[in-house]
Amino acid sequence: MTKFINPGLKQTSRRNVLRGTVLAGAAAMTGAAAMATPRAPKINAVNKTSAKLYKAASETATDANAKPADLAGYTRVKQELVAPPFAPKHEQVATGGPKIVEITMDTTERLMVVDEDTGAEVWALTYNGSVPGPLIIVHEGDMVELTLRNPADSQMEHNIDFHASTGALGGGGLTHVYPGEECVLRWKATKPGCFTYHCAPGGAMIPYHVCHGMNGAVMVLPRDGLKDKDGNQLKYDSIAYIGEQDYYLPMDNSGAYKTYAAAGDDYADSLDAMRGLIPTHSVFNGAVGALTGENALKAEVGETVLMIHNQANRDSRPHLIGGHGDFVWESSFSDEPLTGMETWFVRGGSAVAAMYTFEQPGVYAYVNHNLIEGAMLGATAHFVVEGSWDNALMEQVVAPREFEA
Predict the structure, then answer these.
(1) Is residue 122 predicted with pLDDT exceeding 70?
(2) 136-139: strand order across its sheet
(3) Using an 8 Å Cβ cutoff, are 360 and 301 in contact?
(4) Contact criterion met (CB below 8 Å) for 195 and 160
C-alpha cells in the first residue's frame, strides 16, 4: 500500500517530498481546501524558510573541506537503550579514556492512549516507541555515534536535533531520514549537563513532531562524576527519568476527542489546536497515570534518586510533595548545584537533574507545580517509598477529632 505523509498531499519519498514543506499542497487537498486555504500562505512561507535553513546546514557540513575526526585514543562501546522511566547501564565516574558510545534508535510511529477515561489517543511519533525517547548517558569528552533508522512502514520523514551537540542545527541538518532509510551521526559531548533532543524536520513540522512525543534527553556526566559546591562526590542509587509531554489533541464540536486512521492524518487539525497554545493534556511519560498506581516509581528510605526531567516545548516547575531537591542542576553540571529546593525550574526545550535522598516512607507525589497542569491535565507521578517512619521528622500528635466551640 502506498504510504503518505498526509492523505492527499505528498507521497513519502525523496523524489517528491521537500523537507519541511509538507503543507505546500494543503490548499488543494480534497475535503480540506476551505480550512487550509486561509492559513497556507503564512505556513508555506515559514516552511520554505525552514527548508532553506536545514539545506544550508547540511551543505555547510558536507561541503566543508574539514579533516577527518581524529579518533585515536577512543574505545568503542555499545549502549543498550531502555524504555523510560529507567536509565541505561552506565558509570557515574568514567574509567579509562574517552569512548565512542554507539547507540541505535528507530523513529517509530504508533497509536497511543493518552487518557483511558476519556478515550483520548494520539498517533505518537517516537524514538524507540516510547514517550519520551530513551535516556542517553555519556561522559564529557565522549563521542555519541547514533544510527538513526526510519522503518519502511512509517508515514513521514524524521530527524534529530541534539541540544548537547555543536553544529548543523544540533545534527538536524544531517539526519533527515525517509521511510526505509538510515543514517549515522557522530558528535562530541563537550558540555556536561542534561539536554533535550527532539525531531525537527523543519517549518510547522517541528512543533507538530515535538508535540506528538518525539523528544527525549541526554545526560552528559562530568568524567569525575557529580559534585557539590565544595567538590565532594555526589552519588545516586537510581535514576527516575521523567519526560513531560504537552499534547494538543483535536476535538469535534461535541467536545469528544477525534480519532485518526494513521499517523499524520491529524496534521491540519493539530495545527489549529496548537495555535491556541493551551494543551489538552500535560502528562508524564506519554499518558495520564503512566507513573502512578501500578506504574509508580519505587524507592526505599535512605535511597538517593536522581530525577531527570525533560520538557521539550514548555516551561515546567517540578515539585516533590513531601520531599525536596537536595541538589538541583538547572543548567550545567559545571555550575554549582542549587540546594534545598522546594520547586525547581525546567525551561522549555531543556532537561534538568535533581537529586533527593528519601527520609520517610509513603507515597510522594512528583508534580508540575502549575497545579492546574499537575492535578487537571495529568502532570503527576508517584514515588512509593518503603521503610520505617521517623517521628522526629514528622508525627501526627492528635488525629482529626471533633472539638467544642
Answers:
(1) yes
(2) 136-139, 215-221, 193-198, 161-162
(3) yes
(4) no
Cell of 313: 516545548
CB 100 within 8 A of CB 190: no
**Which amino acid, one-letter code, is at 88?**
P
Alpha carbon separation from 7 to 2, 177, 271, 316 (Å, rounded)? 10, 20, 16, 35
What are phi and psi for residue 122, nearest 5 degrees?
Answer: -145, 145
| Cα→Cα distances 88→117, 213, 241, 299, 306, Å | 32, 20, 11, 18, 13
For the chain, domains (ranges, CATH) are 74-201+215-224 (2.60.40.420), 240-386 (2.60.40.420)
Q: How confident is the model at residue 62, as a pLDDT?
A: 67
- Rounded distance, CA 145 to CA 98, Å? 13
Q: Does the pLDDT of residue 148 top 90, yes or no? A: yes
Q: Which residues are catalytic?
A: 158, 161, 163, 198-199, 209, 214, 319, 342-343, 369
Is residue 130 predicted with pLDDT exceeding 50?
Answer: yes
Radius of gyration over alpha carbons of the chain, in Å? 23
Cell of 279: 494543551
**8-state DSSP, 374:** I
How confident is the prediction for the chain on average, in pLDDT? 89
**What distance in Å separates the CA atoms of residue 210 and residue 131, rounded to the nearest whole number?**
10
pLDDT for 42 beyond 70: no
C-alpha distances out from residue 324 to 85, 236, 341, 343, Å: 20, 15, 6, 8
Contacts of 250 (CB under 8 A, 6+ apart): 257, 258, 266, 269, 270, 272, 273
- As a whole number of angstroms, the distance between CA 17 and CA 27 comes to 16
CB neighbour burial string for 320-337, b if at least 16 within 10 angstroms, e if fewer: bebbbbbbbbbeebeeeb
End-to-end CA gap in the chain = 77
For residue 394, what is the enclosing H or E element? none
Please provide residue 14's backbone torsions phi and psi, each rounded to the nearest 5 degrees.
-65, -25
Question: According to the model, what pLDDT value does residue 57 have?
Answer: 74
Beta bridge partners, 130, equal 127
CA distance 160 to 108: 13
Q: Read off the pLDDT of residues 243-260 as tens digits, 9 standing for 90 and up.
A: 999 999 999 999 999 999
